[in-house]
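Suppose a classmate hands you a notebook page containing two proteins, each written out with its sequence and a corresponding row of structure tokens. How would you begin to make sense of it? This section walks through that situation. The first entry is reproduced here exactly as it would appear on such a page.
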Amino acid sequence: MKLITEQDLRAEIGGKDLRSYRVDRGTIVTPSARQYLSDRKI
């Protein structure tokens, strides 16, 4: 099982202009990571 945090997303996405972000089934996305994606309309 994988865990994605806001810090992981910041490091991976950085300043890229993304419209979507896919995660594998069973991956846990922390609430702060979800908010990070939501704030950037991803």
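The notebook's second entry, a different protein, reads as follows.
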Amino acid sequence: MPPDGGVEPKGVVLSLPGLTGSKEDFTLVHGPLTARGYRSVAVDGRGQYESDGPLDDESAYARAELARDVLAQAEALRAPHGADVPLHLVGHSLGGQIARAAVLEDHSPFRSLTLVSSGPARISVSQEQRVKLLRDALSRMTMAECWEAVLAMGPPEEVGGPARGIGGQEHLRRRWLGTSPAQLLATGRQLCVEPDLVTELAAVPLPFHVLSGAHDDTWPVPDLDVMAVRLNAHRTVVAGAEHSPAVDRPGPTAQALADFWDGLQPRPTGNAGTTATAAGPLTQYTR
């Protein structure tokens, strides 16, 4: 969505969804962000929902491949505006780890990186068990059969199925059936073995923002607090939100994002490689 008419354009936002998510997970933050002057764009990753991808070739979803997709998307978004328009990268959960890989590959297109409910390394043991159950089911059943099995056990988001999103169960079903099983298998495996790359990320000259809900069992909130300190990052904890703050509390989430970007010092023109300074590390608890 472009910035609202009459609002000074401040930059562009590129948002990446999580493992079983989609671009629609950011629907409720688009409006508040455009009202603050930010063009807000969310994408389905390769093989997610409405983006094409191989159904049975896991190598197409290697982390490096997905990172290169993000860099290509960044180039496409910057082209109409010019290099001086700030581009802010946001990644939720798996999307945060893909965003991290893209920034480690080439940080120059981006003005900042926000990691939303996305931790320093592999997911928690309880979530790893759920991902392994999902991968085991996908190795034996079709996507449609998996969906029916998930429904038989309870609400999808509570039994290891698709994450809760916007649009109700019918949207979840369409999103699930539109996603490549190879994408889920490959990226699910990545979440279970992801190394700690916080030290490497901290060496990148970008401002960082670590945002999460007050409760999260995918990466424990204290681990996200420590990661923020290691990154010298701005830290936001959204009260009343869990693993998906943009869905659970979109208003406070959008406000925290825009406040962080508004607080960044302007980057010197034509010197994209210099260290960018954030507003300073801060733990912000929203209500």
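A careful reader of the second entry would note: The first strand starts at residue 11 and ends at 16.
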